[in-house]
Design a protein that fits this description.
There is one protein chain. The protein is an alpha/beta fold. The chain has a domain at 18-109 and 151-209: Rossmann fold, CATH 3.40.50. It contains 9 helices and 6 strands, in the order αααβαβααβααβββα. The chain has helices at 8-11, 18-22, 29-47, 59-70, 87-90, 92-100, 111-121, 130-149, 191-201; strands at residues 51-55, 76-80, 105-107, 154-156, 173-175, 181-183. It has a 6-stranded mixed beta sheet. Strand 5 and strand 6 form a beta hairpin. Helix 7 (111-121) packs antiparallel against helix 8 (130-149). The longest helix is centred in the middle third of the chain and has 20 residues, at 130-149.
Length: 251
């Protein structure tokens, strides 16, 4: 199996890397790191085994995993393998285990549901309509997320207010609409601060970030962005939509 995406921009040499392009330590970052750690400590005490980090394996979530691991917080780490992720994304799983000694629990979609959907709608269903794309997300993301969160009282995300207009009001701690607490400990961090932390603590990250892909999801639904494009413009770029799959959409 190839370990490099077949995407043309992934095969091309990067103009520098994400650290060189984005990292900038700000005067506020030391305080933001300590505040994020305090949020993680408090939620760990409050929820114990009922708490999980739901990691997309993106840069933000890798920062949170590093915060958890460096301070030895007993917080479980989980992710969703949709069956359509880039190989570069999946390659982070053994890197996390090697670096931090933490095993990431992986939740996959139900095989029969995927087979039935693809047989009925085709492999390229996501491009046919927003409804079909959301149905694909439902099978590959929402249903496995439900199993990940079953029996949990709180979950941790890497959401940041800067990511999009739809996320501009992300709270550090809020109800997720299903009776659980949803914790976003770095909600107030900038993209530059995320990468400054990655640089300082040598955090493993997805090399596709070096290829101008700040928001990385399933391979068919993610592309590189151009200068001046919105942070999430590379997600479902063929749609006029809020660029959400349902995991973090608000009614």
């Amino acid at each position: 199996m190839t370990t490099v995406s077949t995407l043309p921009w992934a095969a091309a040499p990067a103009a520098g890397n994400a650290i060189g392009l984005y990292a900038k330590w700000t005067p506020a970052l030391d305080a933001k790191i300590e505040a994020a750690l305090q949020r993680l400590r408090e939620v760990s005490i409050a929820h114990g085994d009922g708490l999980v980090q739901s990691s997309s394996l993106g840069a933000e979530d890798m920062v949170i995993t590093d915060l958890i691991a460096r301070t030895q917080l007993p917080i479980a780490i989980s992710t969703l393998d949709t069956g359509k992720l880039h190989p570069e994304t999946l390659a982070l799983l053994p890197r996390i285990e090697e670096r931090y000694g933490r095993t990431v629990e992986v939740f996959k979609p139900r095989f029969d549901a995927v087979v039935e959907f693809v047989a009925r709608e085709g492999e390229d269903a996501m491009y046919k309509s927003i409804e079909l794309r959301k149905a694909c997300c439902g099978i590959r993301k929402m249903e496995p997320l439900g199993r990940m969160l079953a029996g949990r009282s709180a979950w941790i995300t890497g959401l940041r207010r800067e990511q999009s207009g739809a996320r501009s009001d992300v709270a550090f701690d809020e109800d997720d609409g299903n009776g659980r607490r949803k914790i976003s400990p770095i909600a107030d961090w900038t993209w530059a601060e995320v990468w400054a932390y990655v640089q300082k603590y040598d955090v493993p990250y997805n090399p596709l970030h070096d290829q101008f892909m700040p928001s990385i999801g399933c391979a068919p639904c993610t592309r590189a962005i151009a200068v001046g494009e919105d942070f999430r413009a590379g997600r479902w770029w063929w749609e006029e939509s809020s660029k959400e799959c349902g995991l973090h959409a608000k009614d």
